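Severity: low
Component: inverse-folding endpoint
Summary: output formatting inconsistent between runs
Steps to reproduce: submit the following structure tokens with default settings.
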């Protein structure tokens, strides 16, 4: 037999939907300042863009193992390796 908590015997007060809507509507919208050109690289553009890559399973297993050895994510390892190759003048 499962052990369960005793149900709360006190009923909850009714929710005033209009008051809740007024509260939500009155909340301030966050102001986002655009990033400086030198911070983002291209004005208000995001610093990183999602990219989809397809890898052979055996190669992906090697990538994952290399990332694990460094203690970083797969994405971080790929970025690091590509950056290192480009800095070395490859490509």
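Observed output (run 2 of 3):
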């Amino acid at each position: 037999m499962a052990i369960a908590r005793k149900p709360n015997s006190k009923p909850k007060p009714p929710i005033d939907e209009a008051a809740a809507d007024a509260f939500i509507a009155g909340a301030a919208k966050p102001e986002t300042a655009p990033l400086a050109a030198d911070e983002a690289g291209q004005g208000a553009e995001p610093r990183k863009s999602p990219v989809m890559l397809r890898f052979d399973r055996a190669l992906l297993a090697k990538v994952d193992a290399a990332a694990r050895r460094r203690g970083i994510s797969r994405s971080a390892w790929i970025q690091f390796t590509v950056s290192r190759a480009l800095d070395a003048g490859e490509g």
